Amino acid sequence: MALEISWRLPASSVGSTQAGAWIQLALALEYAGIEGLWIDHGIDHPESFAVAATLCAHTKKLKMTVSIAPEVMLPAALAATVQSLQSISHLRTRLHLSDSGRNSAYRAFGEFLNRDQHSERISEYLDLLTRLLAPYTEPFSHCGRYFQLENAGFASRKLSPPPLVLDQSQGSILCGRHADLCLMSPGPLPLLQTDMQSLRGSAHAQGRDLTFCCHLNLIMADTETQAWQLAEEHLQETGIRHPEPPVGVAAIDKAFAAIKRLQIQPQLWQPVTGGPVFVVGTPSQVAERLASLHELGFSHVILASDHGVADVLRFAEQVLPALAAKGLRSTETQHV
Question: Residues 99, 170: contact at Cβ < 8 Å?
């Protein structure tokens, strides 16, 4: 199985200049042969479906993963919106329903449930959404604990439902029953292997297959030293303090020794526990780490970077050929 690559659309306020930058990024991804674009949601993000619909008009092959929290839209409304985007994009949509159960910001949308109630609600939500997105849904009524529908599905289109992405934190039962793709954080290897085995087992018990994806921020440079220098600059910009290096480390190496202690796997760097994970290194090191994640079980990696189109083109020129040489890419997708 090939390794699928998506790029994460940077968050920013809505504006014509930013919209133009998003279009440039989407066109660069499609030109470079990178398969997808991941469009986040949130209180400070533009509406993800509107962004996806706009970018669909400027691309032909780029897959759009649209992220949304289930608090912000009722299941029948979400099903209708997803089907509209599926039609506009010619079946290029993937849906990510994020786990926002611990996010108090969603009280702005009327979400005041505790964690247990939230889990019950999302379970009922997913059961309804799956039924509403089925291509040959007959109208039905539903009276549950959190949702009531009457004559639902009467406007459904005969379209294939998009693949569904759920977060690992939503639990093995929900992921096994509903998810096509599970979003995980690439943590320490033994724990990661155990979690993957549990999630796969839950899916197999439902007669389903489950694949895995992860988010990675990209810090890449011509030399490893330059890459770790960029990581050091990131710490300074964000105000994160790194741990003191072990006694006896040469003064010139202290900064890098301390930074490298924050690696969770070789070249995978997590400066804050539970925070974003960075892949740090040269193009060949980045390719090696992505290949090892694929071997572990990740079929899809979503990358983010600070320099937009320039990073996309450099990644396509220097990393994708190395992945293709390992048999992880189709040569038909390489354009640069």
Answer: yes
3-state secondary structure of 92: coil
CB burial readout 240-266, b (16+ within 10 A) else e: eebeebeeeeeeeeebbbbbbebebbe
Write down the pTM of the prediction.
0.90
Q: Mind listing the pLDDT tens digit for each residue in 267-289?
A: 999 999 889 999 999 999 999 99
DSSP secondary structure string, 226-253? HHHHHHHHHHHHHTPPPPPPPTT--GGG
**Integer Cα distance of 163 and 148 in angstroms:** 25
Q: What b-and-e string marks burial along 81-112, b requiring 16 or more CB atoms within 10 Å of the CB?
A: bbbebbeebeebbbbbbbbbbeeeebeeeebe
Residue 286 CA to residue 323 CA, distance in Å, equals: 10
Give the whole-angstrom CA distance, residue 334 versus residue 332. Answer: 6
Q: And the tokens for 43?
A: 């209180």
pLDDT class of 192 with cuts at 50, 70, 90: very high
What amino acid is encoded at 218 in this protein?
L
Q: How far is CA 98 from CA 9, 53, 123, 156, 279, in A?
A: 16, 20, 13, 24, 23
Quick check: 111 pLDDT over 70?
A: no
323: its two tokens: 């992945």
* Residue 255 and residue 283 in contact, taking contact as beta carbons nearer than 8 Å: no
Residue 301's φ and ψ, nearest 5 degrees, are: -120, 130
**What residue has token string 């925070």?**
275
